[in-house]
Amino acid sequence: QVRLVESGGGLVQAGGSLRLSCAASGGIFSTKIMSWHRQAPGKQREFVAWVTSGGDTNYADSVKGRFTISRDNSKNMVYLQMSILKPEDTAVYYCYAGSGNWGQGTQVTVPS
To answer: Would you state the pLDDT for residue 92?
Structure first.
């Protein structure tokens, strides 16, 4: 069982930036594909980005060019650097380690 704890969410104006962090413990972190997902009010949870153990990445079209996912295997950390934030980015952001291992989420709010 992997424990994931997200942090770094908050209120940011449109066009601003925010960096989310996800601290992992209790598993072999370095071998896992890690991902970020988000859920806006009244909507289903959706994929945002993933990063492999080797650093390969993939993004949802809606965030491509604005968000960057990265990881530090030595610290068991995953990050999501978010730039040029838009009101439609408002959501609870979740870290995911596969096999049903989700974090508790961190709220990101971008007022319109």
So the answer is: 98
